[in-house]
Amino acid sequence: MAPTAVGLAARDASGHLSPLTISRRSTGDDDVVMKILYCGICHSDLHSIKNEWKNATYPLVTG
To answer: What is this structure's pTM?
Structure first.
């Protein structure tokens, strides 16, 4: 079974985010494994989530 990750996704331009499970490929010989402790959101992510640039494809996980 492929590894998974959970991200917060916009399902539409409402700006609301909800959890989305994402399938990932297995780690390869040339990959680096990192443990992410914290993350953030920038203002351009908000523009993308709300489709203010008219190019969003949903579901959308920014970052």
So the answer is: 0.79
Tell whether the torsion through CA atoms of 2, 18, 57 and 46 is positive or negative: negative
Q: Are 6 and 22 in contact (CB under 8 A)?
A: yes
- pLDDT number for residue 9: 98
CA distance 13 to 29: 38
Token digits of residue 55: 């190019």
**Domain boundary assignment for the chain:** 1-26+35-63
Per-residue pLDDT of 9-27, as tens digits, reads: 999 999 999 999 999 999 9
